[in-house]
Amino acid sequence: MSGSPRELAALWMERGRPEKAEPELRxxxxxxxxxxxxxxxxxxxxxxxxxxxxxxxxxxEAVGEAPDWTYSHFVLSLVYxxxxxxxxxxxxxxxxxxxxxxxxxxxxxxxxxxxxxxRWKDALEAAETGLAIDPEEAQCLGARGVALTNLGQTADAxxxxxxxxxxxxxxxxxxxxxxxxxxxxxxxxxxxxxxxxSLRLAxxxxxxxxxxxxxxxxxxGFYRPFLAWFLFLGKLPTGKVYAIFIATILLRRYLKTLSExxxxxxxxxxxxxxxxxxxxxxxxxxxxxxxxxxxxxPHGRFALKxxxxxxxxxxxxxxxxxxLCLALGFAGVPTMYLIxxxxxxxxxxxxxxxxxxxxxxxxxxxxxxVLLLLLGVVGAGHQNVVDRWRAGMSTEALxxxxxxxxxxxxxxxxxxxxxxxxLLAELPAVLAEIEPKNAQLEIADKCMGAYLLGxxxxxxxx
Length: 462
Known about the structure:
It is built from 23 helices and no strands.
């Protein structure tokens, strides 16, 4: 392949090989460092390679050098969207549209920025404005499909995307969007088919791979309510998501009040409240838990990434340890109930730490997970010492330590003679240990309180 670096880069980009175009563009810039067109092409090339952080300063420099060039605003908008800076992406796209209101590709960039902000109606309007200029503008077609799906108009989204597929049956993005629409409609087999085709055409597509994993897991009936919940939450702005969780907590408290007001129906209220708590807590671990189940599938296990396999292994080990501890509790070791509950609940902060994306989030969640683990170990350790001490006592002695000191003498005198003699024989040892063991019990209670508070805080941190 011969020609100038810019010509070679253009050929590679036409063939969909940005990794080959990048070195040619850098050579072109080395020959002419002031070439703005080469700069913006390099920025878009880096964007296509998912290296938006490298692309951003180059794109901003190009916009500064050519503020009246709409294409530079378009690329800057794409880069901002790739960095999840959707408001800046919207601003860049709108600045480009001020220069040329007929630039259909800028409406595609604007629609993508609005989708990132979950402004589905605004995104649909932007996409349809772009499609009125060019009915085959790819980014507008995709954005329209996503917006319609999230607005609940999945049939309209699918029909539009299928029409687009007739013009370009080898478009991986269209197959991905059709898979997303099918997943929202509960057509899991169709979703598997479209996500698989998208992956065949674009093997590096993370979105298509994740979609395929979700579609395969949805074939397990128990996962479907969680998938529907995730899809529902994914359509809502962040503020509304938090409002739902707060409303859930308040509703559980209300159910508890109802159980006290209407004791005849208390079991039903308690069951509903417990079911709500379990469902909310399960949302944090549902994905890696069902990844574990998916690995039993002959095809599903190949769709999982190495990191997802590792996460599911860690979760499986923690849950197994929790079950074993609870089994020991049933076998007569009382502290094991507490340890089993702590180990099981710790799965949530562990999963959040493992799945954190940014360096800041990883550090924060890992630190909190370690802190919670230490609190659990210290609290359970002190509780175990107290439980073992109590296990060696008679029934009379156990009752005695629950009674305030001023009433203990009266309690002893009221006992039958034989039971009183048993209690008096062990009384010195019991009285000598009550204060130290109460101090340990207080430490255990404080650790458990701090654990619960830290657990709640950790689940709310992004």
